[in-house]
Amino acid sequence: AGEEIHDSDLICNCNGPLCDAEIVHLLGNDYRGLCRAKQGRCFKVFDEHHSYRMSVGCVDRKEIYPIPIFCLPHPKYHMSCCNYSFCDEDITMGVWLGAWKGDLVAVKIFSSRDEGAWSHEVETFQIHMLHHPNILQFYASDRKDTGSAMQLWLITEYHNHGSLYDYLSNTTITLMTLVRMIRGIANGLSYLHTELMGIQKKPAIAHRDIKSKNVLVKADLSCAIADLGLAVRYEAGHISLPNSNKCGTVRYLPPEILDEKVESTKFEFYRTADMYAIGLVLWEMARRTTCPAGPASPFAESLPYYDRVSRDPTIREMREVVVVQGIRPYESPHWQNDNILCDVARVMRECWSANPSSRFTSVASRANGIAGKIRFASRVVSVTLTRTTFDMINFN
Fold this sequence. Notes:
One of its GO terms (molecular function) is transmembrane receptor protein serine/threonine kinase activity. By secondary structure, this protein is α+β, with helices and mostly antiparallel strands.
């Protein structure tokens, strides 16, 4: 209570909870500030040094917003909504919705047993400054002692739509949205896979766990790649692997990993594994796409190999299907009657080739080409409608 209060510690609520109007500290250690925009007196609601919300409210509006700093579970996780305090020991592992510096954020909480994965992901974000619109934005990390256990926090931007898997489970998408999503994923993965030199240097990074649950849907329906806990980094000829034996989600593993033909010292091995998984994610999106040529498939039939393996398949199951039988996901017949879906299907097939060296090195250029087609198609439709309207006017 005796600590000095700084201007940056204050968050205003004059226009509603966490409106972030400009405020300054009033003389005296009374946890209040002055809002320059409204001349309202605001509680000190945020201790930036300790990342702790002390109180929320505006004196002049006589309103208190009872919002502990992390109080709501992420809407995509079916957990009860409770008024947890900031360091409440009942906040358990998983992804939570919180407020940080006035913004909604996602808080991924690891147990101390998973410190290796947490540390590796934080290091990948922090050291290498991953800033790209199609990579989940990292804000901060922290260790929190609840008294009974140590929690490890990873704080990132929050996307209300949740994961691509969640979004597709509730919604079908249009061709325009399909292309927007593909471009986002492709550009994000291309950025990860590219080693940058010079002042803005960045190692090449292979994700190693690409799947629809690790892709987030942004407000504009583009996508951002998330969860770098298993990522492998490659810089100046050196590979840095996480201290984990996990190799990704079994359903999305390429044939060479299922067949245990692992070349762990070569970055190209991990990059081509990512490309195989991207092919499966494209298939999931295409299955949930509606177009004039045909309807979207039910979500239950939109998980890769849904008709061949169990809900939680083993490596043995996947090896039998993918390696021994050489099966790939079923392509809907009507895709061949739609120019966009036909192109997307062609990209899928090249991504999930059994021969890693035959897979695409990047989907980004193909995605941009498909986007060009759909923009051209939109212009043609617009011109056709305009011409039809003109003819009708002349006829009348």
